[in-house]
Amino acid sequence: MQTDEPVLSAKKLPPTYWLTRFVLLRLLGFVYAAAFLVLINQVLPLIGSHGLLPVGPFLAWEHGLPPVGKFLLHVQQYFGSGAVAFLRCPSLFWLGHSDGALLAAAWLGFVLSCAVVAGYANVPMLVALWLLYMSFVHVGQEWYGYGWEIQLLETGFLAVFLCPLLDARPFPRCEPPRLVIGLFRWLIFRIMLGAGLIKIRGDSCWRDFTALYYHFETQPLPNALSRWFHFLPRILLRAGVLFNHMAELVAPWFVFWPRLARHIAGVVIVAFQFTLILSGSLSFLNWITIVPALACFDDSFWKKILPRALVRRAERAAAEAQPSCPMYISGWAITVLVVTLSVQPVLNLCSSNQKMNASFEPFELVNTYGAFGSMGRERYNVVFEGTDAATPDDDADWKAYPYKGLPVDLSRRPPQVAPYQLHLDWQMWFAAMNSPQDYPWTLHLVWKLLHNDPVALGLFAGNPFPQHPPHYVRAVWYRYRFAVPGNKEGHWWERDKLGLWLRPLAADDPDLRQFLAQYGWLPAGEITPASGGNQP
């Protein structure tokens, strides 16, 4: 008996995921593209041969050279070399890490990402994207120590198993493996629940519903809407915390339920992520979190909102689909692997000493996640300033180096930069809550500013000394807060000067030169004895 019932009908047939795979992979490609674009623009000033933390000393340990920064370890010293080093710190850049190699890898990743956005994806393409980005993450040192980096790696790895081996068409004639769709739900479950638990366990302001009194002002990079959110009535801010808890602590439990509950949970999670996108610039964190959340929706959801022509293409692919034994076997294999590797992340979720954004094996295939486990009540900022004056006292004419995202100029509206990430700005947000000893590369940055290094200056929004480098550079510690909207000065910010974060330094400062030489950032022939042995 023939029927005219559409192949994708949700009424009589089990859930299908042709459109889900299509949308999920397109968004993943978009996130990859943003991540590789960041590398194209920033990889050389960050980890290039003349970068703030060059990848060469990181990979090739030299006897007597101390570790740089809290997270930088010279990996050959600890991991050995050759295949052992690769397996413990997987990266293609063991084979070569010249500036040309770094840029070529970034451009290749960007091109492949754009192909995925355009609708073309297969196993080799997604493996290449995953391997390329993992290679950067593992040599990115402090710049790539964030949770969304390993989250992109885990998400990208799972996506490999959604596609056939070679057929890169938007709707290949192989059904999306339901086991892999289930693994994406397992991922969003861990992401959301981990974020919720770390908040409840970590800071009382999440328990007394006052967290949003501070969040929009103190988050790393506010955007143009952050101030509006900050000055909402406090009853709405408390309701926002309740919505946060609903999205992170309640909704995840329904992602494995039947269709209606699963769709509602997906809508809540995605709506929550879009709220965060509107209220701040958290890199691509919220966008990559939406990717596994899309697995909550089957084709019955998508066919109501996607163009009819796209739905018909999916229906034709479903009608012509043939069973794929390799995809069936690989689906079971990756499921067994993920279940095995999930033991430690689950134990971590259950622990009162829960770790935030941690990996338990070198390839970061199954991780634990969390965000904003502690909430700052005040916003601090370190501003680099230079002067041509002969005497670097407070009466000198100090000119500030403007960041691209962090506030400096009180009248400048915060920009929207996400899903793009400004790595220097992010690290300086953390540095403002710590001391220069925890961020020794800031002395390397000062040295580059004292020489008008064009590569390092590209990390800033402008150069206040375009004709010649300044005589002195210092770093000043400020407390910033949002100015009340409609103030007569038209300011977005107010600030109080708290003191010096780094004292004024000159290019011939012997302590600075000794410090840089110690870390391998100054040729040995240029070392001058330190006067008094004081740290800058």
Polypeptide structure, described:
The chain is of the alpha+beta class and 536 residues long. It folds into two domains: 18-368, no CATH class; 379-526, no CATH class. It has 22 helices and six strands. It has helices at residues 18-47, 55-59, 75-79, 82-88, 99-117, 123-139, 147-160, 178-202, 204-207, 215-218, 226-230, 234-250, 259-279, 285-293, 299-302, 308-319, 325-341, 343-350, 423-431, 441-449, 454-457, 510-518; strands spanning 358-359, 367-368, 379-387, 399-400, 472-482, 493-505. Helix 1 packs antiparallel against helix 14 (285-293) and helix 8 (178-202) packs across helix 12.
The structural domain count equals 2
Shape: globular
Report the C-alpha radius of gyration, rounded: 25 Å
Largest sheet: number of strands, sense, barrel closure: 4 strands, antiparallel
| CA distance, first residue to last residue | 84 Å
Helix-strand category: alpha+beta
